Every structure is written in C-alpha cells, then in structure tokens.
Amino acid sequence: MEKHLLSGNEAIARGAYEAGVKVCSAYPGTPSTEIFESLPQYGGELYCEWAPNEKVATEVAYGASIGGVRSLCAMKHVGLNVAADPLFTAAYNGVRGGFVIVTADDPSMHSSQNEQDNRYYAKSAKVALVEPSDSQECIDFMKEAYHISEAFDMPVIFRTTTNISHSKSLVSFSDREEHSCEPYVRNQRKFNCSPANAYRNHPKVEANLKALAEYGATCPINRLELRGSKIGVVTASIAYQYARDVFPEDTSFLKLGLTNPLPMDLIRDFAAKVDKLYVIEELEGFMEEQIKAAGIPCVGKELVSNLYELNPERLREMLFGVKPVTKELPVKAVPRPPVLCPGCPHRGFFYTMSKGRDFVIAGDIGCYTLGGAAPLDAMDTCVCMGGGFSIAMGMSKAFAATGEKKKIFGVVGDSTFFHSGMTGAAEIMYNKGGVIPVVLDNHITGMTGHQDNPGSGYTLQGEVAAAIRIEDVLRAYGYENVMIVDPQDLTAMQKAVDDALASSVPAAIICRRPCLLIKRIRHEKGLCVVDRDKCIGCRKCLRVGCPAVMIRDGKSSIDPNQCVGCTLCAQVCPVGAIARKEGK
Amino acid sequence: MAVKHAILVGVGGQGAILTAKVLVNGLMKAGYDVKMSEVHGMSQRGGSVSTQVHWGEKVYSPLIGPGAADILVAFEKMEAVRYAHFLKPEGVAVINDYEQPSATTAAGLAAYPEGCLEAMEANFKCYTLDAAGIAEELGNPKCMNIVLFGALTHALGLEEIDWEEIIRETVPPKFLELNLAAYRAGRDAAAQ
To answer: Ramachandran region of residue A537, left (φ > 0), alpha (ψ -120 to 50) or beta?
Structure first.
C-alpha cells in the first residue's frame, strides 16, 4: 500500500475526512494550526472555517453535531480554556452527529504561555479522551473517536502534543466513509440545558461514562503488547514512542488510546502479569494517580519529571540514571531570540512607546508580544488572548485607588481584537476606564503563520468575505475619536499617541499596515543604505530593534539581504545618514 | 540496523526544513521507516531552528535528546556550536562556514563567538564548506541549502540512494539544473 509522510496535524485532517466529517471550525494556535490549513484540500466534501475564537469554533462544531453531521473543532491547549463553557454543557446534552474537539498541548512551551495538561479537561467535563502516538494513529483514532462520540452520546477530546502534531511519520490512506443521522427533529429535552433538563442529564452522563469504561477493555485503540513478565509499562500518547526506545526489548506494554475513562480492569490484569509496573506519561501523572488510587502499585512520577517535553535520552536518565555522553565545547553560542521581522509594522508603534515616556503597556498574544523584547522593551504585561484591554482596565482602576499617575495603553492585534479584545473595548467604554485601546492591525493572524480573520476579507478557503472594520466597531461602542495611523510614519504615530492622551472624548488608536509576509498583497519594497561619511556612530538606529541594522567598524551598517526599506532607521537618524533606494 | 539520527539546524528562513524533506524523500524511497520532527511557531521570526530526521527498520521516537545524533548539519556556524551537544562523541558534522549575526550580536549587546569552526573540528569529524560562496558562484544564493545537502549525502554514505533522482522529483523543473549543480558542488566540496 502506498505510504505518505504526514505530520500528525495533516493526519488528523485526513482522519476527519475519512470519517465522513462535514463541518469543521477552528481558531489557529500553535501547535494545532496545520490541521485546518490542510482541510481545504477536501473542500468539495466538507465545510471548514476559521472562527473568531475557540469558543465560537466549538459552538459551531457542536451546533453542526446537533444539526445531524459529524463535526470537528481544533485549538491549542489554552484555546480549550476559552472553549470550556460549551464543552461542559455539550457533555451533559450529548450529541447527534459525532463531535470531536482536538486540543494540541505544548509541553516545553515552544510557543505557549503555560504547559497545562488538557487531559484533566476530559475528566472534569466527563467526556471521552483519545490520544494518538503517531500520524497513522491520528488517522485511525479519529475514526474511532467519532464511533465513541456517537455510541456513547458524548463529545470526544482528541489530545495531541507538539511532537505528535508536528512530527511526520508514514501513513496509508483509506477511502472516505459517508455518514448521516436521522432527519432533524426538535429535541429540547436533550439540547436545551435548562436546569430541569440538566438535572436529569447528569445521571445519564455517569451511566454513559461507566459504559465507556467497560468498552475500554475491548476497545481497538487500547493495545496489549505482551513480551516478558519482568517489566510492564502502561503508557499513552508520545510517551509510548519514547518508552519503546528506552525500555529493554522484553518489556510488556499496555498502550492506551482511550485514556478517559481509564480501563482499570485491563490495567489491573496487566499489572498482575508483570513483576514491576511503570506508568510513563509526559507532563502530569494523570493516569498514574488514578491507577494508584485504584490500589495498583506502580512507578512513575517519583522518577519521571512532570516538567517539560520528554525525549528518550531524558527518560533513560530519569528512569535508569544513564546520562547521555556529550562533548563540551570551549565556545558558547550567544542567544538568537525571535525578533520582529525587518519592515514589521508593529515596530513603529513600539519604538514610539519606548522613547522614555512614562507609559504602562498591557500587551497581548501575537507577533507583537516581541515588542516587549530589548531594545524596544515596551510592554508591561501579556496574559492571554484578548486580555490586553481588560488587564489595562484593571490596572487603571488600581492606579485610581493608589494615585499612580502613569498613562495606560491596552494593546491587541486585529485577530486578537475579534477573538476577545472586543469585549475588553466594551468594558473600557462601559466602566469609564482611563485606558487608551490600541489595535495593531496588520490584516492577518501573524504569529501562527498567516491565517485569515474576520477583518482580513478572506475565508480559510481563500474566498473573498466581509471584512469587518475595526474602526466601525470601536465607534459603535462610543469611541468618538478613533485615530487610524500608519505606524511606519513615526511623526504621525507620535502625533496619534499625543492626541489620544490629550483627547477630551474617548479615544482609540488603530495602527494599520499589512504584514509584509502576506503574499496576496504587492508590497513596495526598497532598500536603506548608510552614508558612512555622514554616520556619526551614535547607534540611535539600533534602538528600533531591526535585525537588518547593525554596527560594523563603529558605524551603522544595513544588511541588504534583510532590509526591506521601511525607513524607520532613517527616520530616527539625527544626521540624515540613512537613505532609501526604491525597488528590491 | 540501529536507527540513525540526523539533526539539521540553522536560522529561520535558511531552508533547513526544506533540506530535511529532500533527505526524507530519499530515505522513504529506499524503504526505510522514517520520522521527522520540526520546530514551528516563533522560530520563524529570525530565531534558531532545528529539525530532526530518524530512519531505520522501525523508528519509534520522532525526537532525540543530547548525545544521540549521528550527524549534525549546521546551516550557520554558531548554530553548529549551539547544537553540538546533540551529537554522539563519534558523530559527524557538516558545517556551513557562514556567519549570520543574531539580534543580540547585531545590536552590539553580545559578541559573535570566535573559533566556532575550530572548536567543532577539534571535537568531531567535520565537513566544513562555504556553501553560501559556492551558491553565489553558481549564480543563486538561494541554492545554498542544496549545496549543503550535497555535502550531507557525501557524509551519510548511503550509496544505494540515487539522490539526483530525488532532487529531480522534488524541485520545480525551472530550478532543476541549478539545484543539480548545487548538489554536485556540495558533494565535491565535502569529498575534498
């Protein structure tokens, strides 16, 4: 059979396609984004979209399930925090078409603000949890997840980690199997979560979970690999792959794909077959604490850290004390942190805010979080998606109480504005906040790799869509003075900040310039060059924090391979030593 | 055979991931089980990037830790130093003799380290080449990654794989001659 090399994310999309899924909705977030980026190729047979946020995506997918088709939503781990509300109620109501929620956790926080272990969501919401360990399982387990969702009348959480989502392995494909429900009939008893209905639904949830736990003993995605009787390992997810590399050849494995509820009878039988039982899992001791609570002795988190991503070498050292042999070099690499790209439109705003002014800047999640890094160093806080405005609001109320005089700016991006920044903008207006909201509008969801959003004018499939105007939203809220400024024009940027501070009516700023990496826009690129005779070596140009600008032999130098001619460095040069040449 | 591990490192935008894909295509064609891991996300923004390729009869983990790589391909010489601890003591390094400042060194906040190549060569079997210079001579700086790929195939010694055929299948026809020339030049440079 022909083999294909697919990432876990591409395989999840393939699995959804083969399972006959018809409606898919998601908000991008590393490491989950590529699931939906690879769905449009199946566009003839399924509908897929970017939603404004994860809660909306979950509701759309759940609505599609109620409507009678198999549906999918996907998000990064912290996205499920946003989507938790519909999840917990969908668990009580149950489904019609199979309903799967993909959560991609990020151990080691490669691109995240925490390393929360979302397996606990399944336990807390009382829903099934399915965990694949490679790309083939991403395809096969998706189909099983839809079977479980329908057979046990519940949403299924399908959990990956970065190294499952982003690693590639060989898979084979099957054909799509279409799936349909009975024609739609109103069923308020099931789908209207009034207290009386919820009261009657809870025992049903418990009964479904109990039946699912029994199913776990024979479920095809729970696999017994019996070899020797000395060591047995209970494991799931990517930890299975690491454990297979680390434990001796004759180790027996109970490799679980359905991890909530745990098949405790199966685990007890397996434990009885081996002298010593290990439970190997990345992050928390989710399975281990339940297995220990069931009175089954096992070894796990006393040896294996709950911090950070595992790998075979780390696991071997923690379990058996075998340190990897490495060579120590006399030379050390200096850090190479991610930075705002040359020509990034966010740079002009953060440079303006960095010029020694007494500002507090409550930031948000996106490329522009890098505005907090040196030398721009222009951000006080970053908490969560859409939090920029509301955190700023809370600080302004605290400052009012303490007498602190610093001016507060709340900063979000365009995609973040539509995600959950809008509610913060309403809060500032409604509760008379002393905060200036700023939207850094680069027309795209940048950090996750350029996904469209309700302001960008295009859908996930690249079709033209309504582009909601941020200024119209803000004006409708009551911001009478909405200033739209090109952040690359430092004079205009400074004027907008000064005017907002002096404004007698509620003011907001929209910094508008498209990201240079958007392919469908023709960007007017140029090149900045330094006149070395004029340059006085004052290093002011370095303050814009552009990776193309550096010091060579005491004077400014611009890397022509990186420069795009945005002219920020030229605008800050006090002696006019930097000039732009057109074209590149 | 024991599973073999390669780690390709560089700076975002240098083409390390693309090169790893060409390598994987060849390994797949030769019938190996293959797994590959990529670093995504913030690494796009000029940060340090790494991608790993593993092959053998049956591969389990898509990720290795320190001291486990058979071969390191560094698209930038300071990145070779950053990831050197991933190499087995008897591991082999293919290094691009190319310096790309980081944001910290460009701003003068830290000095780019001296002696990267010397330190690598004193500790590991190394194939060092000026892939950027070779690519420039061939008329297109962008084929630097295929020059390095050529050197990598020499270091790997997987003679049963027809890498030129793999390149033919992977790159667009418009760039085929350039990439074949780059591949051969990289292979020759490593053989010297």
So the answer is: left
Among A272, A303, A320, the domain boundary falls at: A320
Of the pLDDT bands very low, low, confident and very high (cuts 50, 70, 90), residue B49 is: confident
Mark yes or no for CB contact B28/A241 under 8 Å.
no
A52/B149 Cα distance (integer angstroms): 42
For residues A263 and A303, state if they share a domain: yes
A440 plus A369 within the same structural domain: yes
* DSSP helix/strand/coil, A36: helix
**ipTM greater than cut 0.85:** yes
Rg (CA), chain B: 16
Domain hosting residue A313, numbered range? 223-320
Same domain, A202 and A245: no
User: Taking residues A130-141, what's their average pLDDT?
Assistant: 98
Cα dist. A286→A277, A301, A517 in Å?
Answer: 16, 10, 41
Count of domains forming chain A: 4
Confidence of residue B40 (pLDDT cuts 50, 70, 90): low
Interchain proximity B108–A110, CB inside 8 Å: no
Return d(Cα B192, Cα B40) in angstroms, integer: 35
The percentage of residues in chain A with a pLDDT greater than 90, rounded to a whole number, is 93
Nearest by Cα to A105 from A309, A296, A357, A367: A309
Task: Compute the Cα dihedral for A118, A124, A127, A131 and give only its sign.
Answer: positive
In Å, what is the CA distance from A142 to each residue of A18, A21, A120, A122, A180? 9, 10, 20, 16, 17
Is the residue at A330 inside a domain?
no
Are residues A429 and A475 located together in one domain of the fold?
Answer: yes
- The architecture that CATH gives domain B4-106+114-191 is 3-Layer(aba) Sandwich (3.40)
What is the C-alpha separation between B15 and B146, in angstroms, rounded?
Answer: 9
Choose among B45, B107, B112: nearest Cβ to A370.
B45
Cα–Cα distances in angstroms (integers) from residue A165 to residues A10, A32, A532, B10, B66, in the given order: 8, 7, 49, 22, 22
Binary contact (A111, B48; C-beta < 8 A): no
Quote the DSSP letter at residue A340: P
- Characterize B67-80 residue by residue with b for buried, 16 or more Cβ atoms within 10 angstroms of its Cβ, and e for exposed: bbbbbbbbbbbbbb
pTM: 0.97
Round to whole Å and give the CA distance between A384 and A90: 25
In this complex, which of B37, B62, B103 lies closest to A547 when CB atoms are compared? B103
Question: Cα–chain-centroid distance for residue A545?
Answer: 26
Question: What CATH number should be reported for the domain holding residue A310?
Answer: 3.40.50.920
Tokens of A184: 């739609």
Chain centroid to Cα A18, Å, comes to 25
Minimum distance, in Å, between the CA of residue B53 and any CA atom of chain A? 9
Is the pLDDT reported for residue A54 higher than 80? yes
Please name the residue ranges forming H helices in A32-109.
Answer: 34-37, 54-67, 79-82, 84-93
Q: Which residue is associated with the tokens 């390393």?
A: A115
Smallest Cβ–Cβ distance between B67 and the set A3, A325, A329 belongs to A325
Q: Which residues of A touch B105 (CB under 8 A)?
A: 334, 550
pLDDT digits over B146-162, tens only?
999 999 999 999 999 99
User: If DSSP codes are grouped into helix, strand and coil, which group holds residue A524?
Assistant: coil
- What DSSP designation does A392 have? H
**Model confidence over A306-331: pLDDT tens digits?**
999 999 999 999 999 999 999 999 99
**A267 inside domain:** yes
pLDDT given for residue B18 in this prediction: 85
**Which token pair is B168?**
């033919």
